[in-house]
Amino acid sequence: MSSILEQLRGGLIVSCQPVIGGPLDRPEITAAFALAALDGGARGLRIEGVENLKAVRAVTKAPVIGLIKQDLADSPVRITPFARQANALIEAGADIVAFDATDRVRPEPISSLIAAINTAGALAMADCSSVEDGERAAELGCELLGSTMSGYLGGPIPDGPDLELVAALSRCGRFTVAEGRYQRPAEAVQAQKNGADAVVVGSAISRPEHITSWFADALTGHAKTGER
Ligand SMILES: CC(=O)N[C@H](C=O)[C@@H](O)[C@H](O)[C@H](O)COP(=O)(O)O
């Protein structure tokens, strides 16, 4: 087991991804959120974009999962679709690179993404929507499997996290990450009981716009809103 995974095992990873274009969408603010998360006991960070990653790497040696979100015209795949992006993230200091591991039309095969990450000496994290996604990625040499994409392939977004997928992914024999809609400590504990090696929390810690809307919408009787 790599020392990065040993550091993360049993702990919390905080995703510090500002709402895109929002008032907190600045690298120095992302870095401040990252330091605050580490002060609170996070073992690792999940950071989007090369500029944010560089700003975070400048202030901490903590394990970082890097990703790039890019909207493509001809593919629904949005999280690190290209190997060159994975390499840029690793160059900027990512220990782990997360990518969309769903079985959808994509610009580059998953196999070449994972190969590029492994060749560069980093770890690959498959953002999965199903156990099949995880099995395929594990077969191709991926070290971490996350439940990140569950609920985001169309249709209404569920309210709570996908704890069943965490249990299923944990049986693939790779480092299992529970991610997606964890908003209460008890849910994170349940994910751990279901076999998660680490839990990622994003919006509930680092997107004040979302947290505010949960309360504001509850008071005015509207449904919970969210942004990916
Ligand atoms: C589906 C997708 O694009 N998820 C993204 C992946 O990096 C982020 O927008 C999420 O914030 C992250 O997964 C953490 O989840 P939550 O914010 O629910 O704790």
From TrEMBL:
Entry keyword set: Carbohydrate metabolism, Isomerase, Kinase, Transferase
According to the UniProt entry, its GO molecular function terms are: N-acylglucosamine-6-phosphate 2-epimerase activity; N-acylmannosamine kinase activity
Enzyme class, broadest EC rank: isomerase
> Does the keyword section mention Magnesium?
no
UniProt GO cellular component terms:
cytosol
- Which catalysed reactions does the entry list for this protein? an N-acyl-D-mannosamine + ATP = an N-acyl-D-mannosamine 6-phosphate + ADP + H(+); an N-acyl-D-glucosamine 6-phosphate = an N-acyl-D-mannosamine 6-phosphate
What is the top-level taxon of the source organism?
Bacteria
Q: Which family does it belong to?
A: In the N-terminal section; belongs to the NanE family. Belongs to the NanE family.
Stored CDD domains: NanE
Q: Which organism is it from?
A: Roseibium marinum
Q: Which residues form the signal peptide?
A: none
* GO biological process per UniProt: N-acetylmannosamine catabolic process; N-acetylneuraminate catabolic process
User: What pathway is this protein said to act in by its record?
Assistant: Amino-sugar metabolism; N-acetylneuraminate degradation; D-fructose 6-phosphate from N-acetylneuraminate: step 3/5; Amino-sugar metabolism; N-acetylneuraminate degradation; D-fructose 6-phosphate from N-acetylneuraminate: step 2/5
Question: In UniProt terms, what function does this protein have?
Answer: Catalyzes the phosphorylation of N-acetylmannosamine (ManNAc) to ManNAc-6-P. Converts N-acetylmannosamine-6-phosphate (ManNAc-6-P) to N-acetylglucosamine-6-phosphate (GlcNAc-6-P).
Q: This chain belongs to which protein, by name?
A: Putative N-acetylmannosamine-6-phosphate 2-epimerase
| Its EC number(s) | 5.1.3.9
